Amino acid sequence: MIRVENLAKSVGPDKLPVLREISFDMQQGEFIGIVGGSGSGKSTLLRCLALKEQWDKGKFTVHGTDIFGAGYAGKKQIKREWAYLEQNPELFTNKTVLKNVLIGRSGQTPWWRMVTGMVRSDDYMGAMDIIESVGLLDKAHMKAGQLSGGERQRVAIARALTHGAKVILADEPVIGLDPKSADSVLENFKKLCSEENVTVIAVLPIELAERHAARIWGLSEGRIAFDIRGRRLTMHEKNKI
Ligand code: ADP
Ligand code: MG
């Protein structure tokens, strides 16, 4: 179980509060959609969870480990197991899908293998399994530059998974995608949650969150204004965000 208690974050020289008293529990394998207006703190929340921003205060517990109390080891675990997916994932457009997925393991991949393109067979098999799980098996040897936006998102997801991600934090992963590609990315998230027990938190438009996410958080002025499961937003909830 993952628990956040009273996360607060302010930014800039004026210490503008962006997140206030954010608290929640979530289970491994959940798919949570975050909805909320521009400036409500959605990106800041994801970046705080990925430890890309320092928290002003708050307690962060992951499977019994107090992440800040555990010092370096706790933070290292998050950095290793939690993947933050940017809106426009940077891919090597002139390299294949497979290479892009494998190169994502920088740190684990020796430089000479990155340069020569030599791949160990167990790395190869593992990466191909993951590429299959995101529905790109038939495109594994295509150049990333030839892919659609939705396919590029799925390469980024595959890269995170190859890297060992157990939690995926995705900031507007389907913005700019056509409806079919958006659905395919979100179907993929759902499958990862139910079949691989991956946890996904994704910033989404309301309609897509309602259609795909089992749980929805509505953010407003840095607070979780509502936290609902298995249903659409009420008019009252829509007015809150
Ligand atoms: P959202 O993703 O919901 O649009 P953000 O988390 O990006 O919102 O930002 C929330 C608020 O915090 C916005 O008003 C934004 O301008 C402000 N903000 C975020 N980061 C910074 C920063 N580094 N410096 C100043 N203001 C920031
Ligand atoms: Mg944002």
Can you walk me through this structure?
With 241 residues, the protein is an alpha/beta fold. 37% of the residues lie in helices and 25% in strands. It has 9 helices and 10 strands. It has helices at 42-49, 72-81, 97-103, 111-116, 121-133, 149-162, 179-196, 206-212, 235-240, and strands at residues 2-11, 16-26, 31-36, 57-62, 65-66, 82-85, 167-170, 199-203, 215-220, 223-229. The strands form 2 sheets. The chain has a 6-stranded mixed sheet with strand order 6-7-8-3-9-10, with helices on both faces. It has a 4-stranded antiparallel sheet with strand order 2-1-4-5, covered by helices on one side. Helix 3 packs across helix 5 (121-133) and helix 5 crosses helix 6. It is globular and about 50 Å long. The model has no long low-confidence stretch (mean pLDDT 90). Bound molecules: adenosine-5'-diphosphate and magnesium ion. Residues 42-43, 171 line the site of magnesium ion. GO terms for molecular function: ATP binding.
Structural category is: alpha/beta
How would you describe the shape?
globular
Strand content: 25-35%
Instruction: Name every ligand kind in the structure.
Output: adenosine-5'-diphosphate, magnesium ion
Number of helical segments with 4 or more residues: 9
Number of strands: 10
Ends: how far apart? 27 Å
How would a textbook summarize the main sheet? 6 strands, mixed
Helix share of residues?
25-40%
- Any idea what the radius of gyration is? 18 Å
